[in-house]
């Protein structure tokens, strides 16, 4: 399911929503436990899981290079928000009868040529997260699928910019 993009007065809010047949406990674990987190987003690493805590965005380039990320909002099994460059990413969990709903919101100050790449990346990461919850682990990032979603997000952003 494609994300939605809403233009706000000073930024854009991109929202990905996934209904999952899994408990909040299970989803929270794949968001916050490094051994699970790194199976769907290999660059992220939780260092200090709390508000004003830290995460690392590891370069994964053979060096130990990383960018430090601040956790800006945190409520156990409900909310995890962190800086994402000059923007922010927020995961919100809620319970349903069938399992849970995971909402990822990225607040973006400016749409750039890189934005559809990021959005396609988040889209694929959410697919990998869902697969992981279903017991499927991927050895490699699926670049062909990413290219497909990149084209879709280029169209979506062009539509947002023209309206």
Key structural traits:
163 residues; alpha+beta; 8-stranded antiparallel β-sheet; globular
Structural description of this entry:
33% of the residues lie in helices and 34% in strands. The mean pLDDT is 97. The chain has 163 residues and is of the alpha+beta class. Helix 3 crosses helix 4 (143-161). An 8-stranded antiparallel sheet has the order 1-2-8-7-6-5-4-3. The chain is globular and about 40 Å long. The protein is built from 4 helices and 8 strands. The longest helix is centred in the last third of the chain and has 19 residues, at 115-133. A hairpin with a 2-residue loop joins strand 6 and strand 7 (87-95). The two termini are 21 Å apart.
Summary, kept brief:
With 163 residues, this protein is α+β, with helices and mostly antiparallel strands. The chain has four helices and eight strands; from the N terminus they run ββααββββββαα. The protein has an eight-stranded antiparallel beta sheet.
Gyration radius, in Å: 15 Å
**How many angstroms separate the termini?**
21 Å
Backbone shape: globular
Strand order of the largest sheet: 1-2-8-7-6-5-4-3
For the biggest sheet, the summary is: 8 strands, antiparallel
Mean pLDDT over all positions? 97
- Which regions contain 5 or more consecutive residues with pLDDT less than 50? none
DSSP helical segment count = 4
Q: Tell me the structural class.
A: alpha+beta
Write down how many β-strands occur, each being a DSSP E stretch of 2 or more residues: 8
- Written as H for each helix and E for each strand, in order along the chain, the element string is EEHHEEEEEEHH
* Percent strand: 25-35%
User: Percent range for helical residues?
Assistant: 25-40%
